[in-house]
Amino acid sequence: MAPPRKPQDRLAKAVAPEPLGIVQLVTPEEPEEVGRLDVFSIDGVTYSMPEIVDASVSLRCLDMVRRHGQEAALSWLLEEMFGTKGYQALINFRGLTKDQFGGIAELVRAHAMGELEDELRK
Hints:
By secondary structure, the protein is mainly alpha-helical. The protein is built from three helices and two strands; from the N terminus they run ββααα. The chain has a two-stranded antiparallel ribbon with strand order 1-2. β1 (36-42) and β2 form a beta hairpin.
């Protein structure tokens, strides 16, 4: 039988962190053209969101959650993803059900924030 462990045996060994280099951010001269993903349509007009979401959008959404709550952040994110015209079309559509709205909101949230969550897990 092994001897009983002492509390100090359970302490993690201190490991010196790897030195990190500075992350240099440079504004691109010309923004990269981004494709669009169709999300919903109203009376034959299709509304889409960017295929690739800039991480700054995800970070601004997190900031909105922290400062104003999830509901305000979701509203901001929907307008950011669809543009003012698409967002207004969605909020003014009288036949929108809660299930439809929930599906659209979850799709947009997962698309915009999922990329950030994936990057943070690396």
